[in-house]
Amino acid sequence: MRDELLALFPALRKLSPDAYVVGGAIRDLLRGAHPADADVACLDPLACAKTLRRKVIRLGREEHISAYRVVDGAHVYDFAALLDGSIDADLRRRDFTVNAMAVDLAGGALLDPHGGRADLAARIVRMVDARNFDDDPLRMLKAIRMAVRLGFAIDDGTVAAIRPRAGAIAGVAAERVAYELSTIFSADAFRRAVALLRETALDVPLFGRELDAARFHADDVPLAAAFAILVDDPPAFAERWKWSDALLRDVVALQRLASEHPPLALYDAGERLAAQLPPLLRALGHDGAVEMPDFSVKPLLTGDDIARLAKIEPGPRVGALKRVLVEAQLRGDVKTRGDAEKLVTASA
Predict the structure, then answer these.
(1) Across the strands, what pairs with 62?
(2) Alpha carbon distance, N-terminus to C-terminus of the chain
(3) Nearest-CA neighbor of 172 among 209, 141, 195?
(4) Long-range contacts from 239-248, C-beta under 8 angstroms, 24+ separation
(5) Any idea where the domains of the chain sit in the sequence?
(6) pLDDT tens-place string over residues 78-122
(7) Hey, is 80 helix, strand or coil?
(8) What is the third-level CATH fold of 1-114?
(9) What is the value of pTM for the model shown?
C-alpha cells in the first residue's frame, strides 16, 4: 500500500521517517476508490509541510493543534501532529475504525489496531471509543454522513453511544454542522438519512422535532427539497445553522411551490429550482408529475413597448402587464409580436 500511496502522492517520499499517512486515503484505497488527498500525521507538521517546498496554508486552530495544507499541482497534502506523539495514541483518538488506519512511510506497514479493515469489508461505521464523541460532537453527525455516502451501516454500539450525547451537537460551530447536513442530504439517500437522524436522536436538537422516515416515499431528493420537507421554519433554521441566502430562497420557494405550482410560478422559480419539485412531491407521496413551462420563453415586448402601447408611465402596472404577457406566452395563447401587442392593448 505504501507503493500505491507514493505513486499517487509522490511528495510523500520527501517526508521524515516519523510520518504516517492516516485516515481517509487508506480507507479509500482499501475500498478501491481514488483518494482525493493524503492526510499525514507526524511529530512536527509544520516542518513536514515545509519539506515539500510549496506554499503552506494553515487550516486553523482547534484545541491548540494546528494543521497545514500543501497543494502541489494536482496533489493535496494535509499535515497534523501525531496526537500524544504516538501513532498508537493518535489512532486510538480517531472517530471510526475505518478511519483509524495508517501506513508507516518508513517501514511500509499497514497499522490497523481497531479492526478498520474488517469493518470496511463488512461496510460498517463503528466508533473507536465513545469518549471520542465528547472530544468533537460533530463526529456523531459524521457517522451518518459516512453511512449515507458510502452505503454503510452504523453498528448498534455506536448508535447507543450517540443517543445520550445527541444534544451536544447544538454546541458545535454552525458552519461545521451545515456542511455535514448539506453533504448528508446531497447523497440521494433521503429516507436513510432521516431514519439515521431519528435512530441517533440527532433529529430533535437539529430540527426541533422527531423525524419519521416512514412518512416519505422517495430517496432522490435534492438538498433544497430535503430541507423544504423537513424544516418547519426556514428563516429561523437558516439563521441558526448559517445557511446562505440562496439556499434559504430556494427552500422557501420550494415550500410555496409544493402546495401550488402553476406554470408562471415554476417559470419564475427557474428551471434549476423547478426540477427539484417532482422528487419533493414524490417524497411526500404524490405522483410527482409536474407540467413544466418552456423556460426558454422571453417576453415578446419590452417594458418600454408595454408602456407605449398601454399609454402609461413606467411602474408597477407595466410589470403586471408584462407578467400577463409572459403567462399568455407560456399557455401558447400568444405566439407573435402582433399577438403580444393586441393582448397588451386589450388589457390596458
Answers:
(1) 65
(2) 76
(3) 141
(4) 240/174, 241/174, 241/177, 241/178, 241/181, 242/174, 242/175, 242/178, 243/178, 247/223
(5) 1-114, 303-347
(6) 999 998 889 999 999 999 999 999 999 988 999 999 999 999 999
(7) strand
(8) Beta Polymerase; domain 2 (3.30.460)
(9) 0.88
